[in-house]
Design goal:
Length: 248
């Protein structure tokens, strides 16, 4: 059974009135790790925002466990389909307060909250020295790690990640991705991730979608993607040295 399903989904920009996404249709099964790849502005983040209902499609339907997500109360949906943005905020809280807050909203006891925080601190190898720090006292990479930890404390069924480790070194990114793969095996977590880190995407994801100008050019298992050709094409696109890559 598909965990997430898109049927002919399009999104028109609020100001430009141009299509940001056009006629996307794909499915992601429970326990899969899907990576969205493509040049900046191709629509990767827009897909994630639709799945979390930060925006609604201009056309088409999105289903979560066979339910149209527009029929699911937003609070209920976001507990199960959780988005981690590239730039996450702590809203004036310390790291410890930010990790505890979503659990407080769910009515967890103080003891259970502390156990959960310690559990994810150990699994993500977070430093206890950060606990009393606020957003301005953390690097961008540290804030990314806190955002991932905060999302995992909720124990979502689907984790949406927007360039989740873009400001982390390869070793720390590898540690986080190994943990996420463990959670897929342990809990059948479903992951949908937008990423420019193609080496990590190729190593850890199970499915890949290549987007170009808001359209899906290719969906395939990661081992069938031409990663060498994709890297070369994206380099050309990002530096305005060539046309989009369409040869598959």
């Amino acid at each position: 059974m598909a965990s997430i399903k898109l049927e002919q989904v399009s999104l028109i920009g609020s100001f430009s009135k141009e299509y940001r996404l056009r006629d996307l249709s794909f499915e992601v099964a429970k326990g899969e790790w899907l990576v969205l790849v493509g040049a900046s502005g191709c629509g990767k983040t827009s897909v994630l925002r639709l799945l979390n209902r930060l925006q609604d499609p201009s056309k088409g339907h999105i289903y979560y466990n066979q339910r149209d997500i527009q029929t699911i109360p937003i609070g209920e949906l976001r507990q199960q389909v959780t988005l981690v943005l590239q730039e996450s905020k702590l809203l004036g809280m310390t790291v410890e307060e930010a990790l505890a807050y979503p659990l407080q909203l769910r009515g967890y006891s103080a003891n259970k909250i502390q156990k959960s925080i310690r559990f994810w601190q150990e699994r993500l190898q977070l430093s206890r020295e950060w606990w009393k720090r606020r957003e301005t006292e953390l690097s961008v990479g540290q804030r990314q790690m806190v955002a991932i930890a905060r999302a995992l404390t909720i124990q979502p069924q689907v984790l949406l990640l927007d360039e989740p480790t873009s400001s982390l070194d390869y070793g720390r990114s590898n540690t986080i991705f190994n943990l996420l793969r463990d959670l897929i095996n342990e809990r059948s977590l479903t992951i949908i991730m937008a990423s420019h880190q193609l080496e990590l995407a190729e190593e850890f994801a199970t499915q890949a979608i290549y987007l170009q100008d808001g359209c899906m050019v290719k969906q395939c298992p990661v081992h069938e993607m031409d990663w060498v050709g994709l890297r070369e094409a994206l380099t050309k696109v990002e530096t305005n040295q060539g046309d989009h890559w369409t040869a598959f």
